[in-house]
Design a protein that fits this description.
The chain is an alpha/beta fold. It is built from 10 helices and 6 strands; from the N terminus they run ααββααααββααβααβ. Helix 4 (65-73) packs across helix 9 (184-196).
Length: 221
């Protein structure tokens, strides 16, 4: 059975798909696309039976928090970190740039961090969410390579969106150092890519991850 067939049987067909877009980001044959009507991945070409990558990195399949902690932080939480996880410090703040702060939903901190990372050369491309150009009532994955684009895609958007699916486009557009912003499902997918060490192009490109809180989500309807 192909990787996508297994994904369909065990994840999509059982309602465990989060529409994170990770499977589309890693498919070596580029035959997995995200269907914006069903909010699920679909196969658009031939899938090799020897490849299981989409299934292996799917956060809907399973999540090993001990493993992902080791991948992300080099260790598991100690006794004092069981509640909130591995952390160097707990800080609060806001963007000191008035334009960035006013554009943001709650102080503009995420936008400020992305702009800083971009200007310092930590990243050259940010993977974020914004509103679809073709269908402006929908939330869509976006690529931002400038301060202006980051500000244009600021604000919170409470809708299901396959953010990780745009990573291939970011790489094809010349991105080599990506900063990604995502909900837990998106971050879990990226960390599972890092745990697997493949695809190498994606694994090597993701330099900066900002995770957001999530309790539930809704579709555009």
């Amino acid at each position: 059975m192909s990787g996508f067939a297994t994904l369909q049987e065990e994840v999509i067909g059982t309602g465990l798909c989060t529409d994170c877009g990770t499977c589309a980001a890693v498919c070596p044959n580029n035959v997995i696309t995200m269907n914006y009507e069903t909010e699920e991945p679909e196969l658009t070409g031939k899938c090799t039976t020897r490849c299981q990558l989409c299934y292996d990195v799917c956060p809907g399949k399973d999540i090993s928090l001990p493993e992902l902690n080791r991948v992300a932080f080099g260790r598991e939480p100690n006794a004092g970190e069981n509640l909130l996880g591995v952390a160097q410090a707990f800080l609060r703040g806001y963007a000191i740039d008035p334009e960035v702060r006013n554009a943001g939903a709650a102080g503009g901190m995420i936008s400020a961090l992305l702009i800083y990372a971009l200007e310092k050369g930590i990243i050259d491309t940010a993977v974020v969410t914004g509103m679809s150009t073709q269908q402006p009532w929908r939330v869509a994955p976006k690529i931002a390579t400038s301060r202006e684009e980051i500000i244009a895609n600021a604000q919170s958007r409470y809708a299901i969106v396959p953010t990780n699916s745009i990573i291939k486009e970011a790489l094809a557009s010349g991105g080599r150092k990506l900063g990604a912003v995502g909900l837990p499902c998106h971050v879990h997918g990226l960390r599972k890519i890092q745990a697997a060490g493949r695809p190498k192009q994606v694994n090597n490109a993701v330099k900066f991850i900002i995770g957001l809180f999530c309790a539930s989500n809704t579709n555009y309807r």
